[in-house]
Amino acid sequence: MDTTLMKTKYLKQFFKTTALALVVSSSMQSFAAPTDEVVAIVDNSVILKSDLEQGVAEAQHQLEAQKKTVPPLNYLQLQVLDQLILRQAQLEQVKRYGIKPDENTLNDAVLKVASQSGIKSLSAFQQKLDAIAPGTYASLRNRIGEDLAINRLRQQQVMSRIKISDQDVANFLKSPQGQAMLGSQVHVIHARISAQSDVDPQQLQSVAQQVKQALNESNDITAISKKFSTKDIKVEGADMGYRDLAELPSELAARVSPLQAGQTTDLINVRDGIHVLKLIERKNSEQKAIVTQYQTRHILIQPSEVMSAEMAKQTIDSIYNRLKAGEDFTTLAATYSADTGSARDGGSLGWVTPGSMVPEFESKMKNTPVGQISEPFQTQFGWHILQVTATREKDMTHEYQERMARQVLGERQFDSELDSWLREVRAHAFVQIKEPQLDSKAQQNATPTTP
């Protein structure tokens, strides 16, 4: 595997929010140390010595859990600081673009962490953590919120870099993988491997790999679940029977589409555990993909370097009030919308198919009655107001096949584009390292002295 991709994957694991014990430990350290030192400045933020110490402790813990040699402290500090700088540079962009997860999404993410400790409510989770050290729950919640915001930033920035032409799609659909994907009904076995307590991520990955190997040799998912489940790791499985690909979540459908009968997907790491699917059989379905389309127009106000997040919210509220007072949607969209493509056409997005917009936009679109104007709402792109002017039913079988092809092709490109984007983020960030012994570039350029 390319070393840059390995570094990216390690970075994701390094900042995994479910490393609950380490977060609690770091919170206790912060309350025990009333003073701190700045070790680096990243744009408008700082990295403290306690942040570096926490990161080094977490890296040491992971390496020891994996039974790997822990490198010398100075080397580990350089690597950890580099990763902290990259994380902070991304958080600076999060602030610049006004990206913030909504409370429901954040609550769900925190609750999933709590469930790993056997706690079923946020209030009980907060009581348990704050009993260890005051403010621990807030620290964990803030970190999870930052990770959600970074993930949204990455999706927004990286997906915009992925270019898939119509010819790429056509070539894929003619390929063996594409032809296999066109068999739109699949018989699938689905397994999910999840931690029931604070389990080392490497151990969870190992069990998931064993489940995958067992699925390669057997279709008895019940026996496999019983064999690999323990008090700390739960293996759940089901024979899903025949399903239309359209019924599967798009990420899982994209993984299943290229498979031949008898093959399993790679391990799929998501917040609720590790998933693996096995394709038993595929058959063509004559059922058409009939979907409801929404003729939609919108106005987008986007935070930028010249418009703060607060100004963007004030602007969208002002536009909403003017629309409610009877001003023309087309005129206001052409004048104010940051979506220049649709603004030229009075904000029109044409006929929108479900699945083509981000979830927040799609949910608001589906739940806004025809002819009415939505209240302002936020997505990763900024603040929107939308209006659905009509709906219709359309046979989207061919379009659905093309969309699935784009998902498969996009997934192939995502990791390499993410790595490229992370390099650019790091290169463009203003970084000042306060301690020379923590500056890797300074050490590389230093001239050895003769004793």
Automatic annotation (TrEMBL):
Q: Where is the signal peptide?
A: 1-32
Q: Is Signal given among the entry's keywords? A: yes
Q: What class of enzyme is it?
A: isomerase
Which GO BP terms apply?
A: Gram-negative-bacterium-type cell outer membrane assembly; protein folding; protein stabilization
Mind telling me which InterPro entries this protein's record contains? OMP_Chaperone_SurA, PPIase_dom_sf, PPIase_PpiC, PPIase_SurA, SurA_N, Trigger_fact/SurA_dom_sf
Tell me the compartments it is located in. Periplasm
Q: Which Pfam families match?
A: Rotamase, Rotamase_3, SurA_N
User: Mind telling me which Gene3D superfamilies this protein's record contains?
Assistant: 3.10.50.40, Porin chaperone SurA, peptide-binding domain
- Keywords carried by this UniProt record: Chaperone, Isomerase, Periplasm, Repeat, Rotamase, Signal
- Any GO CC annotation of this UniProt entry: outer membrane-bounded periplasmic space
Is the keyword S-adenosyl-L-methionine assigned to this protein?
Answer: no
Briefly state the protein's biological role: Chaperone involved in the correct folding and assembly of outer membrane proteins. Recognizes specific patterns of aromatic residues and the orientation of their side chains, which are found more frequently in integral outer membrane proteins. May act in both early periplasmic and late outer membrane-associated steps of protein maturation.
The domain comment in this protein's record states:
The PPIase activity resides only in the second parvulin domain. The N-terminal region and the C-terminal tail are necessary and sufficient for the chaperone activity of SurA. The PPIase activity is dispensable for SurA to function as a chaperone. The N-terminal region and the C-terminal tail are also required for porin recognition.
Its recorded name reads: Chaperone SurA
Source species, please?
Acinetobacter baylyi (strain ATCC 33305 / BD413 / ADP1)
